[in-house]
Design goal:
Aspartate Aminotransferase, domain 2, 2 domains, 15% strand
Length: 359
């Protein structure tokens, strides 16, 4: 088939380099992906298997996933009409971006899928750059809100890849000033120790995005958008039916009841290791770590090219994420996921002599 035979397809899509790719990484310590490192117990996995065996696979699942919504609603102390479920947070972003009637305002660098999905659904994107220290200038963001009157503002708490959080006062200022919706992506909230959910009662244009992925259930692919019932009803009109399959609904209900409390406790342990890792990175010559509330730390290799440090770590069996190509403000930066204690120690023991070799 020649290129001319595909003229009916759009040609201008976002670069696919922004999408996750499966890499050949056998034998490497994986500290490049933002996954939780606590597998489920064999007992719980067997219970999931038994739950699957009782499903009628010849029947369609509950299109509303009401039982699963009820489990989430109990945990959040809200009613089910405040919750929209999606196949991961990415589907919910797509639903939301399809539903709005104007431009989107984002701060960059941030989660690349915001721009990626917005461009796919042909939404205009305005950008506010972070400061040189990778902090968000809220005054400049509010100026951009006034200038562009966006239909939607999207921010993260904490932000990926910087790890920086948002304070309730800033979110309240933004929600008060925004002429449209405000979405706060709280994918990493298990590690942050704070949430902006309490602000929903005061600001009806505010929405919170959650995911099970960072809590340790990345394979389940369940996202939650929490908003006013009016917003949820409008967005639900765009959602395709049966977007949450029966096996996922069955597993997620069980895991919400029996796994999430334990996984959230383990996330607090990850946060404690993150703070220790931050202190250790700050003591290595030529390294500038950025404070983080997530399960990763972004750091700049001031005395050596980041790609060289990345390669030398890989030679020593440690894989981190090289960030320089993602955004100009991330030039010279690497990102490391907070793994198990032994993995963190192995990473530091590899990084320290690498950096000392450039002094």
């Amino acid at each position: 088939m020649s290129a001319s035979d595909l003229a009916w397809l759009r040609r201008e899509f976002p670069p696919t380099s922004r999408r996750p790719r499966t890499l050949r990484t056998r034998g490497l310590t994986r500290l490049d992906l933002l996954e939780h490192f606590s597998p489920l117990s064999p007992r719980l996995m067997k219970r999931i298997g038994r739950a699957f065996s009782s499903l009628d696979l010849n029947r369609y699942p509950d299109s509303e996933a009401l039982d699963l919504k009820t489990e989430f609603a109990k945990r959040l102390a809200i009613s089910t009409d405040h919750i929209l479920l999606g196949k991961g947070s990415d589907e919910l972003l797509q639903i939301l971006f399809l539903s709005i009637s104007g431009p989107i305002l984002i701060a960059e660098p941030s989660f690349p899928m915001y721009r990626n999905i917005a461009e796919i659904v042909e939404r205009k994107v305005h950008t506010v750059l972070l400061d040189g220290d990778l902090s968000l200038n809220m005054d400049r963001l509010l100026e951009s809100v006034q200038l562009h009157a966006p239909a939607l503002v999207v921010l993260s708490h904490p932000n990926n890849p910087t790890g920086a959080g948002l304070c309730p006062e800033s979110v309240a200022r933004l929600a008060s000033a925004a002429p449209g919706g405000v979405l706060i992506d709280e994918a990493y909230h298990p590690f942050a120790g704070s949430t902006h959910l309490p602000l929903l009662e005061k600001f009806p244009n505010l929405m919170i995005l959650r995911s099970l992925s960072k809590a340790g259930l990345a394979a389940i692919r369940i996202g939650q958008l929490i908003a006013s019932p009016e917003i949820v009803r409008r967005l639900d009109e765009v959602r395709l039916p049966y977007n949450i399959d029966g096996m996922v609904q069955s597993a997620a209900r069980l895991l919400c009841r029996e796994a999430l409390p334990s996984l959230e406790a383990k996330a607090r342990g990850v946060a404690a290791r993150r703070d220790l890792l931050f202190d250790a990175l700050g003591k290595i010559p030529g390294i500038t770590p950025f404070p983080s509330l997530a399960n990763f730390i972004l750091f700049r290799t001031d005395s050596a090219p980041a790609i060289v440090v990345f390669s030398k770590l890989k030679e020593r069996g440690i894989l981190v994420r090289e960030m320089s190509g993602d955004h100009p403000l991330l030039e010279g930066c690497l990102r490391v996921t907070v793994g198990q204690r032994a993995e963190v120690r192995r990473f530091l023991e590899a990084l320290d002599p690498i950096m000392k070799g450039f002094l």
